[in-house]
Amino acid sequence: MDRTRTCFFTGHRKLPSDKKEKIKQSIKQNIETLIVSYDVKNFISGGALGFDTMAAEAVTELKMSYPHIKLYMYIPCHNQDVLWSQDNKKKYADILSKSDEVIYISDKPYSKDCMYKRNLKMIEDSFFCIAFCINSRSGTGFTIRNAIEAHKHVFNIADELYNEK
């Protein structure tokens, strides 16, 4: 996979309910900009609830207009969804079935550092990042800081949405 043509997603699991539709629209607009302006073809989702799920769904929807793009799922561990609701498990299985490749970062069950390792791998394999971060003291904030230190181009949708006039 060509890193310069790859974007990963990172964001909060809990999204502000009054902004969800705008977040989804912004994800799609940012993805389309990357496809058209930067020839990005590969998109990586970490498969978590919230922003990751929304971003993965946006990629699968945009595949109808851009059939050459690919969705890669970087899953931190095999039992990531063990405590999820049945609805969330069903949505997760649907996304996995529509992805081009599912990569498990760890073959072991959930551990304290599996999400951290997944995030670092997404940074390593990408050049761009589409994020939703309103709390920099979070896993998402940590991931964005590491991406910036690694000279990745980060687009934080929260900046767009919360700086609207």
What descriptors fit this protein?
single chain, 165 residues, alpha/beta, 6-stranded parallel β-sheet, 6 helices, 44% helix, globular
Describe this structure in words.
With 165 residues, the chain is of the alpha/beta class. The protein has helices at residues 20-38, 51-62, 86-98, 114-124, 139-149, 157-162, and strands spanning 6-11, 42-45, 70-75, 101-104, 128-132, 153-156. The chain has a 6-stranded parallel sheet with strand order 4-3-2-1-5-6, with helices on both faces. Helix 3 (86-98) links the parallel strand 3 and strand 4 (101-104). Helix 1 crosses helix 2 and helix 4 (114-124) runs parallel beside helix 5. The longest helix has 19 residues, at 20-38. The protein is globular, with a radius of gyration of 15 Å. The chain starts with 5 loop residues before the first strand and ends with a helix. The model has no long low-confidence stretch (mean pLDDT 95).
Helix residue percentage: 40-55%
Mean pLDDT: 95
Distance between the termini: 39 Å
Compressed to H and E, one letter per element, the order equals EHEHEHEHEHEH
User: How many strands?
Assistant: 6
Main sheet properties: 6 strands, parallel
Count the helices. How many? 6
Spans where pLDDT lies below 50 across 5 or more residues: none
Radius of gyration: 15 Å
The strand order across the widest sheet is: 4-3-2-1-5-6
What is the strand content?
A: 15-25%
Q: What does the overall shape look like? A: globular
Structural class, please? alpha/beta
